[in-house]
Structure prediction request, 416 residues.
Amino acid sequence: MYAGAILVPLIVGRALNLTAEQLAYLVAIDLLTCGIATLLQAWNNKYLGIGLPVVLGSSFVAVTPMIAIGSQYGISAIYGSIIVGGLFIFVFASFFGKITKLFPPVVTGSVVTIIGLSLVPTGIKNMAGGVGNPDFGSTANLLLSFGVLAIILVMNRFFSGFAQALSVLFGIIAGTIVAIFMGKVDFSSVADASWVHLPEIFYFGTPTFEIGPILTMIIVCVVIIIESTGVFLALSEICDQELTEKDFVRGYRAEGLAITLGGLFNAFPYNTFAQNVGLVQLSKVKTKNVVIAAGFILIGLGLIPKIAGLATIIPPAVLGGATVVMFGMVISSGIKMLAAVDFTDQQNLLIIACSLSLGLGATVVPDLFVGLPQAIRIIVSDGIITGSLTAILLNLFFVIRTKKSTATFEENRSAS
Prediction:
């Protein structure tokens, strides 16, 4: 989970050209907020918390929208939109709890698959050294990235259990060590980072509120809770804990509050990490005590920028070798969810076909909607948002149509 948690701030921070000091803060505050968010979900009181052994981390769904918003409106608009998006989920949690049936596997599976497909290009660019790097595509970068990939694959082939679960993190560490000998690592950011730094509200300045980014982030937050719904359901089966509508509402409220905290502390939107499902199933450890301990450990790490600074020295090529695996695993998780879909139903095939095609199309051809107004363009030009909206709206369309057809059939039969 740690590997996934530090990837998002590194990708977003570098895309927005943050300084080494700002990047170290971003990683540190992200880890701290991950810990707080995890504890909120584990709390399970009358108002919030799903009460399952879940770990929350910065959402990959928000990566490209945050970069797009920051590039067009500035970093302050990112955090204004995150705050509003989190409050939206918190306030309307009860509503989302009532419509969970409208998010069947065909929607959740399509959404998760689109997330993975849309993120893969970022991983591939990092494998070559990162956009704008003078030695982009060099042999050294490719050797580093494919070396990390090879380490991860070898560990998954010859190890099992805990060692296998740490393969991505070990690959990143090993790749960074090799990069040091290649002269590709700069330790100045670690040396300049302080030992202790308390979180600051509005570290990057007072948030601004723009309608386009706000609408984009609200959609991102809705996609996040749809993804989390699938994780909740998977964990409930593993833990033999049946979930009620009130359980989902409390889970959504906790995520809404976590997202809002991410905006206040200038971190990220947070969601339940799917990686945790496999670990719980593998270890058979179903108690919340483990994730509560993990939450406090993450908070401790987040208070020490020196440790966060270590994450910022990871070369893009090393990061690329790991992200290709991570993003590919997101695709695999989505395909696994789609395995529960009835493929004999033409409507399900259409939902998957249209959502994946438009989602991937908007990612590969971002200028597709260049003629639209900017506020609308920032929403639909992101492949994750476009594909997710397509899956959600098409599912609603077919569900409503089916219900109307069934009702009409019943009325005609009664009349006859």
User: Anything to note?
Assistant: The first strand starts at residue 56 and ends at 58. Residues 99 and 332 are 26 Å apart (CA to CA). Confidence is low (pLDDT under 50) at residues 405-410.
